[in-house]
Amino acid sequence: MTKNAGEKKAISGQAASGFFEDLHEPLDALSVAPEANYCLYCYEAPCVQACPTSIDIPTFIHQIRTGNVTGAAHTILSENIMGGTCARACPTEVLCEQACVHNATGHKAVEIGLLQRYATDHLMAENGPHPFSRASGSGRHIAVIGAGPAGLSFAHRAAMLGHKVSIYEAKSKPGGLNEYGLAAYKMVADFAAREVDFLLGIGGIEIFYNKGLGASLTVEDLQKNHDAVFIGIGLGAANGLGLEGEDMGGILDAIDFIADIRQTDDLSRIKLGRDVIIIGGGNTAIDAAVQAKKLGAGNVTLAYRRGTDQMGATEFEVELARKCGVMVRLWSKPLAIQGAGAVSGITFEQTMLKGGKLVGTGETYDIPCDMLLKAIGQNLDTASLSGLDMDGGKLKISGDYQTSRTGVFAGGDCVHSGEDLTVQSVEDGKQAAVAVDVWLKNNKGA
Ligand code: SF4
């Protein structure tokens, strides 16, 4: 595969943690005060209602303003124990900041994400005792499957409620998408790992690595040895394009490309084409496209079959990609993969909406490439979840996060509960832990 030799030399031997710059410059002691003062401390603040974890935003901003930065972090983390990650990776421009009342008067929103990061980074840098304590031991033991945002959030809240938690994680590291799936310029350095260490500081949580669901670890087995089970496995395999030649060289899943960048200690080993096409319209597509460009690919094209309004990625993300030099081609559907052994180009068909339905116009065009990254979503691996009812390709749950199997609960991307965002997974984990606590009290006398 062709490489951009100049860029490759520049990054030789360098890990992603030292190559990619932070997407947003953090606030410092000087810049934080005017930003905190800018907040109007609204009553029934719309920003709180727009936050999936219901963080008391005006209160934590007021705490920053009065110099109680540790207290501000406590306010944030009491609702969202991964407030540090969410401050970096949340699409705040369509959540809390979009709801900020300043927008209504044509002014910029309060930089809620940056203020949140300021507070949570401050607390983690203090390296003091864990800010939350555990209730007295309930004598109950809960199994959690998956050490991603949902599983870790569940575990932390369950530990706070006095339960013992054992997490079974398929990979060799914790963090899930925070560790493997977010662009390196959003999660610079080792923040994901440090946040997990911080979270585990509550105590009462153990993690078993390289133990995913399968023949040697089943939901049924875990139920025999635990009082309840929480499934937070996220999504698995990436969706395919359904085109002939998809197994050619140079064709990868964007999630694997991103994970390789996050995990390597030498970026020059990352497979990178000179002409890269990314197919998809979500944040994964943007993360892959921007990183491909920053790593030195010559031409990077992001193709999406609909318009910007239908994209999963926010306007900010699409603009970021454009600013980095990514060519964004909308209303373009991949029709055929060209190449012999290795991909050499993609034929696209223009699309349009006709009577509300997406149709091809019959007009086609080709883009040459030596690398194709697929970012058209992932699906839930249901093989190890037999016996549990499904709903639209995900686990079916009731209002208390319980699956169709009594005592087995689920949350995060493997269920339908909201947008597939880290912040939603954290909320699911938190709420599910409270629901399990109630269920244990009602059914097992915890
Ligand atoms: S809506 Fe904006 S101004 Fe009002 S409390 Fe929230 S951040 Fe502050």
Characterize the structure shown:
With 446 residues, this protein is an alpha/beta fold. 36% of the residues lie in helices and 18% in strands. It has 17 helices and 15 strands. It has helices at 5-11, 16-19, 29-38, 46-50, 57-65, 69-79, 83-89, 96-99, 112-126, 149-160, 177-180, 191-200, 219-225, 254-263, 283-295, 315-323, 422-444; strands at residues 141-145, 164-168, 205-208, 228-231, 251-253, 275-279, 299-303, 327-329, 332-340, 342-354, 357-368, 371-374, 390-391, 394-395, 408-410. A hairpin with a 1-residue loop joins β9 and β10. The structure holds iron/sulfur cluster. Residues 39-42, 45-47, 57-58, 100-102, 110, 112 line the site of iron/sulfur cluster.
